[in-house]
Amino acid sequence: RWARRQRPVRPVARLKRGRMAPKRLFSWLRKRNEDDDGVFGPDDCPDGFTARQLFGQGTSYTYDDVILHPGPIDFGAHEVSLETEVAKGIKLRTPLVSSPMDTVTEANMAIAMAEVGGLGFVHYNLSVDEQVSFVRAVKNHPVGSATDVNVVDASATFSILAASGRSYAVVTDDGRLGGRYLGVAHASDGKQLSASAKLVDHLAKVSAKKSRDDAHAAIKADEKLEAVPIVSDDGNLLGAETREYLLLRETLPDAGAPSVDAGGRLLCGAAVGTREGDKDRIKALVAAGVDVVILDSSQGDSTFQKSMVLHIRASHPNVKVIGGNIVTRRQAYHLTHIDDGKGGTVSVDGLRVGMGSGSICTTQ
Fold first, then answer.
1. Is-contact 86 118, C-beta < 8 A?
2. What radius of gyration, in Å, describes the C-alpha atoms of the chain?
3. pTM for this structure?
């Protein structure tokens, strides 16, 4: 009746004999409606508050204080895409990255993140050579192959293999992925040998493969094989397909498309500082194939970070750089409008946002 007469809406003020009596229930909603056509409709009774209204009242809220109201759905779940850019030109299917902390991201974590469509940033709390070796291991890792490969050097013995609890060991000259491949040793072959016998002297007859698919097929064809190495054209160990990883993968859901570069190699990020010596670190990381570097600082809006951005832009123009940390619009503006000294400005390719309490300090 109210709508037909196009009269001001009168809300329920109280209960009368078990039913709601119309009074002035929606009058305040009509006042909030900026496009009042005099007819009551869905737009005349909005639920909740807009973000501007909610956060413009001078009151602070926590996550538990706020909920997002559901709206009408006109799409299927299969149409939802979470793809986003972590930096200009670098898209991630899964918008998650792992932190460049020494307790979080080294080669295996960076590989695992890229395998599921995310990205890992290798920390820099280690020597340049060690960080470069991690980045190189990620970039050379065959997509879809095992990450936890048991690699030992030429001096390893069967006692070391037994202590590892693994059924195999891949032997390289330096005990690392990327080292010169020497062979595969099986723990079962050492049962009749001394514990001090060297693995390199009792290698199994396993043919190395050039791709993950070939290694996968080899394990499927021979039930006695525990691991099939994947090597480069120059004989260096890139990874391995292992029976234990193969069985594990069959129990897991499909990981989806990995994060890869234009050449099909896994994406890898790395953290660097803003000191003068970090310029050599960046040069070495670029040579190893790093895709994006993050300037790791608790306060990104500094002359040191701006100088490093200018250096990277001039010396390594193809490498993406993420600045930070920041929490204000002014900080963001400063890192996206850096004076290049030639009358123009340069910008970072991404921003790392967040300050606060950590395990060892509180940044304010």
1. no
2. 30
3. 0.74
